[in-house]
């Protein structure tokens, strides 16, 4: 089922710099879609347009049913430093005026789902490691029960070990909640590990260089990283990206 | 108290005691006349002799200082919030706030006193002290409100927050460290503003500490001048510490400036 479409979306910023597009994209319900491209190709801009935070200069975003409930995870954890972990996770529920007892319950459940301990609930973000802060950020997105999760290079600033563990947890959450995920990254390996589909972008203004579907097992574990299928996927994605760079040059 | 905490209190106290002892002995050894430099003991004597009248003056100055500070706090924060909601209002009013800030308060004191009237001198002092204390609150809070994490603003919008919710739940807490810092500056300035206004107003109807200093100076009661001066300094220090404590209590859990670094 198609969730929505980006139709000839293009973004030009005030200085006249073209940032993105024109750009067509079909968002399939339930897919894990990675937008892969070099820095400055407008990946984040595309995500902001999909979220409705930015109105594109040209083109439009069309949702086939109603606009889905959207969760957003930024590159930085983007937590409120003055609020505890629990209060941070509860934020979307508070803003939606969910009754307090119910909101507390859902926030606590979201905390557990991202692999944090109940004792972390009353800590302040500064007391946590980078990986744990990112888990809080994901828990906050999940607490609002989104059907579409937008992630803007969420693990780019993390060490590789935290990143691998978060990748696996993210796949589990994607499966359990039957989420649609659009994941912006500049890591070929990350996109090969996570995605059901990878769309590669050219250097800015970002256009689609090509797309591939990844068959792989639906629930991937560390094993997938060792398999020939994974290496082959990495090779294909790298080629796509290279061709895109060449075409743009 | 930790060792460093103890040293922090003990070292300045020792310096203070040494200075006072040196001062006392210099005055005794060289027999410096009281009219030039009174000994600390003479100042303490003046303080106890005139205790009731000095305390009454202290209270007058303190009352106006606190009122001016409260007024500056409320009006500064309110105006900063208005600025953060409307760029046009900010463009329209900010230059005038700056003009108010850069005009020396001594220069406008006579004008304000004439407008308000000598019979309401306290109100004139309050206005003058407010003018001095207001700007740090306004400029710090404006900066703080503007320094809010843009991604958090996006997130709030994504979850359907109203402008009011963004202001209250996001921008205001973001601005709090800036506001508290502005309050420390403004608290001291409120006192300075009150004292300068008392001087500037130059009226016999004012009864604050500044007026005690002028009066004692005219009568060449130098020890009394020093006593009033010491009270003013103490008051300034007390205001600063009270605001620093407030800042610490408000930020200790989360802001880098107030959190003790873990070893």
Question: Could you characterize the architecture of this molecule?
Answer:
The complex is a heterodimer of chains A (249) and B (263). By secondary structure, chain A is an alpha/beta fold. Helix content of chain A is 39%, strand content 24%. Chain A has helices at residues 43-51, 85-95, 100-113, 130-143, 160-176, 188-194, 222-226, 228-248, and strands at residues 2-12, 18-28, 32-36, 58-63, 70-73, 148-152, 180-185, 197-201, 208-213. In chain A, the strands form two sheets. In chain A, strands 5-6-7-3-8-9 form a six-stranded mixed beta sheet, with helices on both faces. Chain A has a three-stranded antiparallel beta sheet with strand order 2-1-4, covered by helices on one side. In chain A, strand 8 and strand 9 (208-213) form a beta hairpin. The radius of gyration of chain A is 18 Å and the shape is globular. The two termini of chain A are 36 Å apart. The mean pLDDT of chain A is 88. Chain B has ten helices and no strands. Chain B has 263 residues and is mainly alpha-helical. Helix content of chain B is 82%, strand content 0%. Chain B is flat. The model of chain B has no long low-confidence stretch (mean pLDDT 89). Chain B has helices spanning 3-30, 40-49, 51-85, 87-102, 105-116, 121-146, 150-158, 163-201, 209-218, 222-251. The longest helix of chain B has 39 residues, at 163-201. The A-B interface holds A 48, 51-53, 70, 72, 74, 76, 78, 80-83, 91-92, 94-96, 124-126, 144 and B 149, 151-152, 154-161, 165, 169-170, 173, 176, 253-256, 259.
């Amino acid at each position: 089922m198609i969730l929505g479409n980006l139709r000839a979306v293009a973004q030009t910023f005030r200085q006249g710099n073209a940032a993105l597009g024109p750009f067509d994209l079909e968002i399939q319900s339930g897919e894990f879609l990675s937008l892969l491209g070099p820095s400055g190709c407008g990946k984040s801009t595309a995500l902001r347009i999909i979220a409705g935070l930015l109105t594109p200069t040209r083109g439009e975003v069309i949702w086939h049913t109603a606009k889905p409930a959207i969760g957003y995870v930024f590159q930085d954890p983007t937590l409120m430093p003055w609020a505890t972990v629990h209060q941070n996770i509860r934020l979307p529920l508070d803003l939606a005026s969910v009754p307090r007892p119910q909101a507390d319950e859902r926030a606590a459940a979201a905390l557990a789902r991202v692999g944090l301990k109940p004792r972390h609930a009353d800590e302040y973000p500064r007391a946590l490691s980078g990986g744990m802060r990112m888990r809080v950020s994901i828990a906050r997105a999940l607490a609002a029960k989104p059907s579409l999760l937008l992630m803007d290079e969420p693990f780019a600033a993390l060490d590789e070990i935290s990143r691998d563990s978060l990748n696996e947890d993210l796949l589990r959450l994607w499966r359990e909640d039957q989420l649609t995920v659009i994941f912006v990254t500049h890591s070929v390996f990350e996109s090969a590990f996570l995605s059901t589909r990878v769309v590669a972008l050219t250097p800015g203004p970002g256009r689609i260089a090509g797309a591939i579907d990844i068959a792989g097992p639906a629930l991937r574990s560390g094993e997938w990283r060792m398999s020939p299928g994974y290496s082959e996927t990495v090779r294909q994605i790298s080629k796509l990206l290279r061709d895109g760079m060449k075409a743009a040059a | 108290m930790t060792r460093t905490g103890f040293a922090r209190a003990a070292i300045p106290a020792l310096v203070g005691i040494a200075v006072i002892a040196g001062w006392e002995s210099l005055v005794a050894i060289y027999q410096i006349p009281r009219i030039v430099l009174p000994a600390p003991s003479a100042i303490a004597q003046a303080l106890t002799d005139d205790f009731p009248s000095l305390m009454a003056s202290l209270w007058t100055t303190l009352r106006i200082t606190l009122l001016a500070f409260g007024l500056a706090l409320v009006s500064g924060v309110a105006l900063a919030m208005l600025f953060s909601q409307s760029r046009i209002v900010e463009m329209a009013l900010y230059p005038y706030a700056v003009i108010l800030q850069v005009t020396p308060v001594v220069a406008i004191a006579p004008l304000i006193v004439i407008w308000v009237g000598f019979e309401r001198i306290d109100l004139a002092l309050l206005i003058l002290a407010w003018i001095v204390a207001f700007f740090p609150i306004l400029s710090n809070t404006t900066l703080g409100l503007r320094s809010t994490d843009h991604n958090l603003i996006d997130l709030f919008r994504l979850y359907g927050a109203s402008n009011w919710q963004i202001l209250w739940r996001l921008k205001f807490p973001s601005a709090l460290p800036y506001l508290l810092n502005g309050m420390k500056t403004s608290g001291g300035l409120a006192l300075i503003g009150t004292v300068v206004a008392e001087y500037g107003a130059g009226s016999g109807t004012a009864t604050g500490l500044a007026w005690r200093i002028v009066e004692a100076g005219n009568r060449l009661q130098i020890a009394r001048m020093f006593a009033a001066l010491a009270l003013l300094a103490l008051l300034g220090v007390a205001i600063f510490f009270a605001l620093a404590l407030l800042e610490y209590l408000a930020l200790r859990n989360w802001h880098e400036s107030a959190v003790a670094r873990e070893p």
